[in-house]
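Methods: holo model generation. Sequences were used as deposited, without trimming of termini or removal of tags, and paired with ligand SMILES retrieved from the corresponding compound records. Each pair was processed once, and we did not select among multiple samples. The sequence and zinc ion SMILES for this entry were:
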Amino acid sequence: MSNPRQHPGDETLLRHATGNLGAGLRLVVDVHLESCPHCRERVRLFEAAGGALLERLPPAPVSPALIEAVFARVDSGAARPLRGPARRRQSVDGFALPAAMADCAIGPWRFVHPKLRWARVAVPGAPRERVILLKIAPGFSAPEHGHRGLELTQVLYGAFSDGRGFYGPGDLVEADDEVEHHEPRVTSDGDCLCLAAAERPLRFNSLLGRLVQPLIGI
Ligand SMILES: [Zn+2]
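and the model returned the structure below.
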């Protein structure tokens, strides 16, 4: 895999480092970190900075309730190491998925257009998160849409462009409220496979978008 050129913003990486990203967005960032030494280093710096801040605080008694909450979080799997022991990867349609997705349940492919298929990704412990795999054939242009809240798209295979940039394998595209017209267009010869997560439902403007959005529910 080539070195990623498009990365999550520092705010997103800081939210990841401090456990302040929802499970769906966290999964997309985890997948990005697998292939991006640059961002792994940023997250390590943020984690170290957080630890240093805590060390500078005066010692204070820790309540039993807090200890209980921390252990409950560890037991629930919500707090897990960045790189745990190697897990078995799964494949979808011959595409090997990143190790971070090893425990995710991938739903069946659904067609919304001859050139666009999507499958729901169920994140362990957080099945209601808005996470999907998108498989887009060459030449397809996704409907124009705006964003509400943060949306992260990680390119796993293939490539697309959206007028702001060109994105290949390993790249993470971050979009938020400021991006009003985001029209991804596949530029690779083969299918483009992406993992996408959104904080809130997308706001499609075009007719196809309005048709697709209720089906995808993202
Ligand atoms: Zn990166």
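The chain has one domain: 1-218.
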